[in-house]
Amino acid sequence: MSKKNKIHPRVSMPMQDPQARRSTFSEVALGYTQEQAQAEARRCLQCKNPTCQSGCPVEVDCKTFIHHVAEGDFDAAYATIKNTNSLPAVCGRVCPQEKQCELRCKLAPTGQPVAIGRLERYVADTFYAANPCDAITGGEECRILNPDMRVACVGSGPSSLTAAGYLAAHGISVTVFEALHELGGVLTYGIPEFRLPKSIVHTEVEYLRQMGVEFKTNWVVGKIISVQDFFDQGYQAVFIGVGAGLPKFLGIEGENLLGVYSANEYLTRVNLMRGYKFPDMDTPVAAGRQVVVLGGGNVAMDAARTAVRLGADKVTIVYRRSKEEMPARLEELEHALEEGVHLENLVAPVAFTGNENGQLTSLTVQRMELGEPDASGRRRPVPVQSAFFEIPTDLAILGIGTGPNQVLLRETPALTLNKWGYIQANPETGETEIPMVFAGGDIVTGAATVVLAMGAGRRAAREIARRLGAL
Amino acid sequence: MAKIIRKRVLIPERVTELTLEAPEIAAKARPGNFVILRVCKEGERFPLTIADTDVEAGTITIVYLVMGKSTAMLNCLEQGQEVLDLCGPLGQATDIHPVGTVICVGGGTGIAAMHHIAKGHALAGNRVISIIGARSADLLLFEEELKKFSHEVLVATDDGSKGVKGLVTQVLHDRLASDPEIKEVVAVGPVPMMRAVAEVTRSFGVKTVVSLNSIMVDGIGMCGACRVRVDNQTRFACVDGPEFDAHKVDFNELTMRLKSFVPQEKQSYTCYCECHEQKK
Ligand SMILES: Cc1cc2nc3c(=O)[nH]c(=O)nc-3n(C[C@H](O)[C@H](O)[C@H](O)COP(=O)(O)OP(=O)(O)OC[C@H]3O[C@@H](n4cnc5c(N)ncnc54)[C@H](O)[C@@H]3O)c2cc1C
Ligand SMILES: Cc1cc2nc3c(=O)[nH]c(=O)nc-3n(C[C@H](O)[C@H](O)[C@H](O)COP(=O)(O)OP(=O)(O)OC[C@H]3O[C@@H](n4cnc5c(N)ncnc54)[C@H](O)[C@@H]3O)c2cc1C
Ligand code: SF4
Ligand code: SF4
Ligand code: FES
Q1: Are residues A225 and B222, on separate chains, in Cβ contact within 8 Å?
Q2: Interchain contact, A223 vs B69, CB within 8 Å
Q3: b/e string for B175-184 if b means 16 or more Cβ within 10 A?
Q4: Distance from the alpha carbon of residue B274 to the mean position of ligand 3, in angstroms
Q5: Percent share of chain A, pLDDT over 70
Q6: H or E stretch including B221?
Q7: In the predicted model, is pLDDT for residue A304 greater than 60?
């Protein structure tokens, strides 16, 4: 099946037209058709020693599932993926594939690796109609959950959802406690609809519900219930997946002016609260005319592309390093540029200025140039003396990073934290310094990726299942 | 979902007290804590202080002033109906220690929130002097409840229809001037009132705590909407507060930030009222 001599280009992804999508929140990447998926799958060399799998944090057996796609056996493809990845429809959409599976693909040196992420998405989307128990456990029926084995998962981001799915599949009763009124963590409140439709997250949650996982929303652990309370109430283990949701601010002048938002606030208003439908939805969100977004990662891209959709005249991303060093997924950056977002690289924010009502009017920035490489190997941006200028703006969004979510940590002093304030957990098992309390995802690693959070949830769940004698 | 066990209209069309079924929240709530509610699935998340709890009955009490759409929608619910989302207890509890005499100042709807704090101080063995104020006698809240545990309840009304004619700050000033035993002052109410209280107590050097009502979204420290400047540092009212040292709060910034969404709030409320009228 492999045609070693002739490398066809990747089958391109059908997209909504860039102009059209500037005014809609519906998904940008439309997904392969069956023909496209099979054509792309046939590009895979089916290598004897495939390297793709080792690039995937949850070790999806890419070679095998792609083989099944090429053959048209989508059930088998789905089972192969689900074996290690519980949220393929999500990962296929949001993984930074170019740094993971596709980076390691044997075809990567040609610049045209197999589009593993897109294929994964195709398989997951196609299979949605199927029985959830079949999908997750590979069996016809759901496992009967043992009421004597109970685990509490805190937070409902990808780490907790993965842990919950794994545990339920092994017959363990699980309750997920989420602080917000909706489930999904960043998948719901952070990543916008046009990149990850909320219906996908709902479907994944629904699967878990059908498997018997219990969900409690509006439960802030540390406030309404403590980690110790769980044990007192008969839970035998706790998984903490509360994420890195604390927004960072710059500490520069004018930061609390009206019109300066953290990306978390802006995205929460739009995604979780559906502020883009104001006034049908009650939560207001500022629709700036001249928007400035600070930062260079996925969060900044999402904020910028959201501002475009809310009708801004001009959206500018301000980043202190060069374009090549922007940490965002390549695809997000490309999409942002296609949608008309401007880039202002090598400038650093200095101060915000406002009018007499406290409304933001401009951002003063300083020009930077690349100096010597720093510890990370990237050339360090250094300020250019007296090279200041102003960018007029009525809405500034800070996507400059997040820190550990404090609520649970403050109320659980027995947890040991590392020097950045994240929870110290055993890298193999996820266990914290408190016996039978496990942690994973962004609250351990700092802001990372969906698939890494899932990997951590899965490792912890496996260890919990082993300790409870369910393996 | 939280069921409304009892609805009591305190001031018609303006202020209402709801008793909600929330056993887990009641069990953990301390004075100073608040909840975040959402009335319906189109609704916004908004904070209200826990004015009282009944652990045995498994209920909490909230008291709200109808300000705009969210509070108006809440006000449409009747006994037996449910609030869609209720999340709490949130925020840091009031720092209550036996200190001697404490003055608790409440203005308008803030009296309800102040009530829970005053009760906490009384339970801790402090001598509580409550000072409450409103525009007129019919807008005063919780006077009887406060009398149950306060050593004294002093009243000020703008029009003199009850108690002293004038502001709570005048009563507070006179008391501080005549009673050197006052160890602490707590104030909950409109921002101008809290700012004025801070100015009065500053000259007496008395520790003063205010409960800040900045705009909130998640209420669990994830958005920064509620940020306030205290002692020249940015703090999140929902997780670091809502109570802060009154002498260090930047009230100008708080006042400014509370106006973030005024045009949208007006739009929401007008739409809502019009549509409500039509239904009638
Ligand atoms: C805007 C944005 C875009 C991103 N884009 C990508 C992308 O394209 N690709 C990618 O791989 N990654 C992306 N990421 C990163 C990725 O989303 C995270 O790494 C991942 O979601 C972390 O998962 P988690 O399970 O650790 O926690 P989270 O997803 O952060 O979920 C934590 C949950 O815990 C809840 N919680 C917090 N405290 C408590 C408490 N005390 N009690 C109960 N519940 C609590 C929170 O409300 C939240 O729902 C993005 C992140 C953001 C913010
Ligand atoms: C910790 C805390 C405790 C509070 N406790 C009480 C209480 O016990 N009783 C009471 O009557 N009020 C209380 N408030 C104020 C209450 O939250 C607002 O009055 C309410 O959100 C107004 O919503 P609305 O839609 O009815 O009015 P809107 O028309 O939306 O707003 C009117 C004004 O209320 C403020 N506000 C609007 N949205 C919010 C929001 N999401 N969060 C906070 N403030 C907002 C703004 O200053 C706005 O201008 C509290 C606020 C905070 C932060
Ligand atoms: S989970 Fe992510 S990294 Fe792994 S194969 Fe799928 S897209 Fe690639
Ligand atoms: S490395 Fe690339 S070509 Fe080889 S099996 Fe994996 S996906 Fe196919
Ligand atoms: S309300 Fe979001 S951080 Fe306080």
Answers
A1: no
A2: no
A3: bbeeeeebbb
A4: 51
A5: 96
A6: none
A7: yes
Instruction: Verify whether ligand 1 is closer than 6 Å to residue A186 (CB atom).
Output: yes
Checking B123-128 for CB contacts under 8 A at 24+ apart, the result is B123/B149, B124/B96, B124/B97, B124/B98, B125/B98, B126/B96, B126/B98, B126/B99, B126/B100, B126/B101, B126/B102, B127/B100, B127/B101, B127/B102, B127/B151, B128/B101, B128/B102, B128/B103, B128/B104
The ligand 3 atom at the shortest distance from the C-alpha of residue A101 is 8
What confidence tens digit (pLDDT) does each residue in B46-88 have? 999 999 999 999 999 999 999 888 999 899 899 999 999 999 8
Tens-digit pLDDT profile for residues B13-43: 899 999 999 999 999 999 999 999 999 899 9
Contact list in B for residue A265 (CB cut-off 8 A) is 217, 223-225
Provide the whole-model pTM: 0.93
State which residue of chain A sits closest to B43, comparing Cα positions.
A282
Burial class (CB in 10 A: 0-12, 13-18, 19+), A391: middle
pLDDT tens-digit map of B222-255: 999 999 999 999 999 999 999 999 999 999 999 9
Kindly report, residue by residue over A375-421, the tens digit of the pLDDT. Answer: 877 788 899 988 999 999 999 999 999 999 899 999 999 999 999 99
CB–CB contact A405 B222 (8 Å): yes
**How far does A223 lie from chain B, in Å, by closest CA?**
6
**A3 pLDDT tier (thresholds 50, 70, 90):** very low
**Amino acid letter, residue B97:** H
CATH class of the region A145-245+404-467: alpha beta
Element spanning B174, H or E: helix B168-178
Instruction: Classify the C-alpha dihedral A30-A342-A363-B263 as positive or negative.
Output: negative
* pLDDT tens digits for range A53-108: 999 999 999 999 999 999 999 989 998 998 888 889 999 999 999 999 999 999 99
For residue A2, pLDDT beyond 50: no
User: What ipTM was assigned to the predicted interfaces of this complex?
Assistant: 0.93
Give the angle subtended at the CA of A177 by the CAs of A173 and A180, to the nearest 5°: 150
d(CA B215, CA A10): 49
Phi then psi for residue A341, to 5 deg, are: -75, 140
**What CATH number should be reported for the domain whose range is A246-401?**
3.50.50.60
pLDDT at A1 over 80: no
Q: How many CB atoms lie within 10 A of CB B130?
A: 28
Q: Which domains does chain B have, with CATH numbers?
A: 2-90 (2.40.30.10), 101-211 (3.40.50.80)
Peptide linkage before A9 cis (omega within 30 of 0): no
Chain A residue numbers with beta carbons less than 8 Å from the beta carbon of B257 are: 256, 258, 358
CATH superfamily of this structure's domain A30-128: Alpha-helical ferredoxin (1.10.1060.10)
Residue ranges per structural domain of chain A: 30-128, 145-245+404-467, 246-401
- A188 lies within 8 A of chain B by CB: no
What mean pLDDT comes out for the span A107-134?
Answer: 84
Angle at B76 between CA B59 and CA B32, to 5 degrees: 40
Q: Do domains A145-245+404-467 and A246-401 have the same CATH topology?
A: yes
With a Cβ cut-off of 6 Å, ligand 3 is lined by A 56, 58, 60, 62, 85, 91-92, 95, 97, 100-101, 116-117, 120, 451
